[in-house]
Every structure is written in structure tokens, then in C-alpha cells.
Write a structure and sequence with these properties.
Largest sheet: 5 strands, antiparallel
Order of helices and strands: HHHHEEEEE
Strand content: 15-25%
Distance between the termini: 81 Å
Helix content: 40-55%
Structural class: alpha+beta
Length: 220
């Protein structure tokens, strides 16, 4: 079998060597070990693919729970976040999408094989070919698990950012009246008055007495 595997790695070229019989006859224990080894080789690929299917279903349920449960929902509108934090959330969600898609493709590769057909001249004997495919499926399974868990971590990071990120600052309004200058966020406007929320509390300004009114990024 080692020569067959070496032949598969080197593109089909192999060196033939004469085989000589073992001078020691095989014992019943040797025959049982050979049969067990053959059984394990023949069932290796189905076992790896069954494990990949189970992992795919379990990780898919985990991601569905993270996305669907209300306990892991942050603000419904990331526009409520400060600008730089909103950009960070968008980047985390984009990264989660890319990583999650890659992980899903790896898990599908492990569970169902490659969407390709091998040329007849490149086909390996069944036990050897199945063993090589089982190794590839196991590698894809490990990568798919790592990528899917990374996707879950990115989603949690995005949700945590929406929870704990600072809110976007309200636009400030600065008005000047004979009584003085007031600056704060607008609470309401109506009936000829403007109510501002300032550092000293809410202030009601008579619009008829306003001499200047302007927007401000921050209050002095």
C-alpha cells in the first residue's frame, strides 16, 4: 500500500521491486489483525463523512442560535452608534460573512467530497483511494470547524460592539438671546418656543427673542 500511495504522490511513476515470501508463516492473530486493518480502511471514509455531517449540523445550529436568539441582539440600528464604532461593526459583520462562507464550504467538502470527477487513468485502488480521500476530508473538516468557530467569534464581537459602543452624539444647537447664549441638544420645538437640553438642565427659549441660531458640533 505504501508503494501505491507513493505512486499517487509522484504522479504515477513507481519502481517495481521483487517480492519475496516471508519465511515466517502467518498466525491466526496476524490474519485477524490484517482483516481488522482492512475493515478499518474500508469504513474510514464513511466514518469521516458521517462525523463531518454531524459537525456541520451542530455548528449550523450554533450559528442559527447566535443569529436568532434575542439575547444576542444588540441595537437594532447601528446608525445609533458613533461613526467609527458603526464602521467597526460593519467590518466585523463582513469578516464573519466571509469566514462563515469559507467554513461552510469546507464542511460541505468534508461531508460530501469535491465536486469533481477523477480521470480513469488517475484512479487509485479502492482502499488506497478511499484512504487518501478520508485524509483530505478530515483536513477539510478541521479547517471548517476552525473557520466556523471564528465566524461565531466575529458575530459575538459585532454584537458586543453594538452593546457597549458609544452612542452617536446628538447634534447641538446654539442660540443667542438678550438673556444670554444657550447650547444643547434639541428636545422639542413648538408654540414659538425651543426647548434645549443643556448641561444645567432643560432650557426653554422664546424663538421671538432669538438673535442668532446655529448648529454646533459640541457645546463650549
Amino acid at each position: 500500500m505504501r508503494r501505491l500511495l507513493d505512486r499517487a504522490r509522484t504522479g504515477g511513476t513507481s519502481v517495481s521491486r521483487p517480492l519475496s515470501p516471508d519465511p515466517t508463516p502467518a498466525t491466526p492473530a496476524d490474519l485477524r489483525r490484517a482483516q481488522e486493518r482492512d475493515r478499518l480502511l474500508r469504513t474510514e471514509l464513511p466514518r469521516v463523512r458521517a462525523a463531518a455531517t454531524a459537525w456541520r449540523n451542530g455548528l449550523g445550529g450554533l450559528l442559527a442560535a447566535l443569529v436568532g436568539f434575542s439575547l444576542v441582539r444588540g441595537r437594532s440600528d447601528i446608525g445609533q452608534l458613533a461613526e467609527h464604532w458603526a464602521v467597526a461593526v460593519g467590518f466585523l459583520l463582513l469578516a464573519a460573512l466571509v469566514v462563515g462562507t469559507s467554513g461552510a464550504l469546507m464542511l460541505l467538502r468534508a461531508a460530501h467530497g469535491r465536486p469533481a470527477v477523477t480521470a480513469a487513468e488517475d484512479l487509485l485502488p479502492s482502499p488506497v483511494g478511499d484512504h487518501v480521500e478520508a485524509l483530505d476530508c478530515a483536513k477539510a473538516l478541521r479547517r471548517g470547524i476552525a473557520l466556523t468557530l471564528a465566524c461565531a467569534l466575529l458575530l459575538l464581537s459585532a454584537v458586543a460592539t453594538t452593546w457597549y459602543g458609544p452612542e452617536r452624539a446628538d447634534p447641538m444647537t446654539q442660540v443667542t438671546t438678550p438673556s444670554g447664549t444657550f447650547c444643547g441638544s434639541t428636545v422639542r420645538v413648538g408654540h414659538g418656543t425651543l426647548v434645549l437640553r443643556t448641561a444645567a438642565g432643560e432650557v426653554t427659549v422664546d424663538l421671538a427673542r432669538v438673535s442668532t441660531l446655529s448648529a454646533a458640533t459640541a457645546c463650549p
